[in-house]
Amino acid sequence: MLLTKEQALARSAHSVGGPNETFVLNLGPQHPATHGVLRVKLTMDGEFIQRAEPVCGYIHRMHEKMGENRTCAQFLPNTSRLDYLSAMQYTHAWCGIVEKACKIEVPERAEYIRVITSELNRIASHLVGWGAWVMDLGGFTPILYAFDDREKILDLMEHICGARLTFCYYRFGGVVNDVDEHFLNGAREFVPYMRERMRMYKKLVTENIILRKRIEGIGIITPDQCRRYGACGPVLRGSGINYDVRRAEPYSIYNRFDYEIPVYHECDSMARYLVRMDEIEQSLRIVEQALATIPEGPFVNPKVPKVLKVPAGDYTFATEAGRGRFMVRLVSDGSDTPYRVKLRTPCLANLSLFEETSAGMLLPDALAHMGSLDLVIPDIDR
Amino acid sequence: MSSPTVEQLLAEFAQLYPPPPPPPPVAEKPAAEPAAAPVAAAAKPTAPKPAPAPKPAAEGVAPSPSVAAPAQEGAPAPAKPVAPRPPAPKPAPAAVLQTERAHCAIAVDFAAKGYHVDLAIPATEIVAVAQRLYAAEFSLDTMTGVDWQKLEQMEVVYDFLHFGNGLRLVVRCRVPRANPELPSIAHIFQGANWHERETHDFFGIRFLGHPNLVPFLLPEDATYHPLRKDFIRAAD
Lengths: 382, 236
Description:
- The structure holds two protein chains of two kinds.
- By secondary structure, chain A is an alpha+beta fold.
- Chain A is built from 16 helices and eight strands.
- Chain A has helices at 5-11, 63-68, 72-79, 87-102, 108-136, 141-161, 181-206, 209-215, 223-229, 234-237, 245-248, 269-293, 346-352, 354-358, 363-373, 377-381, and strands spanning 23-27, 39-45, 48-55, 170-171, 174-175, 313-321, 324-332, 340-344.
- In chain A, α5 (108-136) packs antiparallel against α6.
- The longest helix of chain A has 29 residues, at 108-136.
- In chain B, a hairpin with a 4-residue loop joins β3 and β4 (153-162).
- Mean pLDDT of chain B is 71; it is low at 27-97.
- In chain B, the strands form two sheets. A five-stranded mixed β-sheet of chain B has the order 1-2-5-4-3. Chain B has a two-stranded parallel ribbon with strand order 6-7.
- Chain B has five helices and seven strands; from the N terminus they run ααβαβαββββαβ.
- Classes of the chains: A alpha+beta, B alpha/beta.
- Chains A and B meet through α2, α9, β6, β7 and β8 of A and α3, β3, β4 and α5 of B.
């Protein structure tokens, strides 16, 4: 049973400085629960948070300036280093914006490959987020299962592009290598395997009373807060807003597949948890359909020039990454390097609402709440 | 107007910022790109005030095939040189650079650009516009700056989106590069708090009324603004 602040204060031992004394507690920048170099400056009133101020920038690398000093092709690997768990969707956004601006056609087969790899990447990303979050909450077992499943995806990815984390597999006009039967069969086998595992996770974790006590009703984020802070991804859909870039601003060939956008209206951490678990199933559905209908043909447009000059203008392109809406703005003056690159990352928006939503929480609840945002720190600091 | 359409938005902003009259033929105009005419035509009927001299947009433009790359938004080419509001800038001699747009809303081809409506406003009016957009249930997607060094200007770009219908709206303000200041909108869209701090970090643009305009991603004692175009070779 949760105590109210008054009850907790009534039971607590006498504090030295009187009832109104607060103290500052630094969470991070090196702390296991922040999953990276994030520092949160907590002003505590006993066990209760008065103010939690995230301090960002410990892994800031100025990717946007790098974008101004490199050609579009040279900048491509940078995008997979922002949210390293969603590298496919991030490189997709950069390829997409250059293809849009330069009017490069993408062959049919390449679009299918992109959808399959992006959705597999989303599953891997949710598995890490899920396992790490449950580990924060004290359950060590699930992350071992999650990494076991993720390993199968990473092996498939490694087979087609050589990388296991910071994939740089997409190219302007297609992908770098064609997929072979080994990959396709592996992905086909993975779908039923993962479905079976999801049933097990439901029993093992989702219905676990300890987990539910920790996250149900904790970390309420209202739809209005989502709107004011620009929240996105599972955070937004856990607050009852049915918004997904794949539907709202359709890109690639997502409009050909039959899938649902999971939405929960409870606005708490459990809702965000359930959105992610349902998204794994929906991604499996998309992968299954794409694998069944993938056409033969070229995997990259052979007519893409080596030196790309983006026509002058101001372009944006968004993709739905594992953590939400990733948008790139490319301002070009017509030369071979971009004039300005803006990377709009989902974790920055999702963390920015933490200060408002965590006020008045118990510290362990705030950590459960922070885990529900599924943060990747290099994505915030860029 | 809980889920405004592009037309409703254009009509609303056309009342606030009427589209300027088509310019007389000027030599220094950038050539109108093919996309310009249909889009401008689409925007026109929504404007409640008919422009004084409603010539077809394309014909007002001298057919000088200038070296200039097409204008920034793809659409507003005809509207550029004569803005109804005072700060009509001189087009840059370096023709590749984009010139400031007239203060008005235009429809943009989403498939080509990635947003539906492009609104240029004076910097002093960003708060009023943000309040209207908040009332219309828009969300602040992001905001950023662009340093137009040769024009001696800074551009602040706000990206809005609507969760209901996916409408994307871009709002642009220009401020002088020597004294880049504009009002903060962090009291309307709290997400702007961090975006404004970041924009201040990178460009030195000051947001008046911001509650805590201290470095966000840069070190706390940083005195430089790395995304300014004159910030080069910092490692030397």
